[in-house]
Amino acid sequence: MKTELINPTEYNEILHQAISHIHTTRTQVAKQINSAVTSVYWVLGKLLFEKQLSEGYGSAVVKQLSIDLKKEFPDMGLSPRNLWDMKRFYERYYQADEKLRQAVAVLPWGHNLLLLNKVESLKMVEFYANETINKNWSRALLLNAIKMDTYRHVQNQIATHNFAETLPQISAEYANEVFKNSYNLGFLGVTEPLKEQELEKRLTEKIRTFVLELGKSFSFIGNQYRLEYNQKEYFVDMLFFHRGLQSLVVIELKIGSFKPEYVGKMNFYLTLLDKLEKGDHENPSIGIILCADKDHLDVEIALQDIAKPIGVAEYQLLLPKDELQTLVLNELNKEKS
Prior knowledge:
Pfam families: DUF1016_N, YhcG_C. The protein has helices spanning about 10-50, 60-70, 80-95, 100-105, 110-120, 120-135, 140-145, 150-155, 165, 170-180, 195-205, 205-215, 260-275, 295-300, 320-335, and strands at about 180-185, 220-230, 230-240, 245-255, 285-295, 310-315. By secondary structure, it is of the alpha/beta class. The chain folds into two domains: about 10-145, no CATH class; about 155-320, Trna Endonuclease, Chain: A, domain 1, CATH 3.40.1350. Strands 1-6-5-4-3-2 form a six-stranded mixed β-sheet. Strand 4 (about 245-255), helix 13 and strand 5 (about 285-295) form a beta-alpha-beta unit. The chain is elongated.
C-alpha cells in the first residue's frame, strides 16, 4: 500500500492543534477539581461565619472540629488554620461580584491563600485571578506578579504599537487586547547578561511557559524560521500563529534598549511573511519587538509612517535570581507554616 507523505507545514499544524487540545482538556479537568474543592471550603467557611465563630471564644470549637473532620476526611487539609482561612475566604467574597466569585472558584487553594494574604483590593484580586486562569500561572509566578505590582503597571501602560493605523478596527481592538507592553520572563532563571541567541534558546526550551505568558490562542511554529527570497535567506527569531487573530506573529528579541532601526527590519520581515507564508484567508502578519527597555516617544516616531502592524514590548527577567528565589521561598514557607 502506498503511503502519502503529508506536507511538513500541515503536519506541524496538526501536531500543534493536538497538543493544544490536550493542554486545554487537562486545564478544564484541573479547573473542575479546583472548583469542587473550593466549593467544599466555601460551604465550611460559610458554616463558621454563620455560627459567628471567632478566633477568640471559637478557637476550641474549631480545634475540636478539625480533629473530628480529620478522622472522617484525613486527606483534605482540615487543620484549624485552614478552617479559619475558609471562613476568611467566605467573608471576603460572599458579597462580591459574581464574576469575581467565579474566577476565584477555579483557582487552586494555594493561589487563593496568596490572594487572601497579599492582595487588598477586590478589583486587584479579580485581575490576578483572571491572569492566573488565562496564563496558567503557578503559585510562584502569581507571587512574582503580585510582588512586581503587575496590576498597577498594566493600568499605567502607554500603547506602543500602530495597530489602529494598520489593521481593520475589529482586528486592531482585538490585537490591542492580545498583546501587552511588558512580558515577565522570570521563569528563565537568568542570573547574568545574555546574548540574544542565548535568550532565544532559553525561551525555545521553555516555549510552553512562554506561550502561556503571551496569552491564549498562540501556536508556536518555530525559531530561526527561514524565509527565502531573491536567492537570499532571512531568519526570524520566533514565529507563532494566533488562532483568534488568524495572523502569523513574529517576535524579534533584542537584549538592549529599543532602537528605531529595529522597526525597519521588522517591517521587512512582515512583508516577506505576507508574501511567502500568509494564507489567502489569513489576516496581515503582526510583528512584536521584544526588548529590555523602550521610550514610548521613540517608538511612536519610529512607527509613524509604517504600514505593517508592529508593537514594541519590554521584558522583565527579574534579576538577580538569588534574591528572587529567596523572596519566593520565604513567602511560600510563610503560607505553609
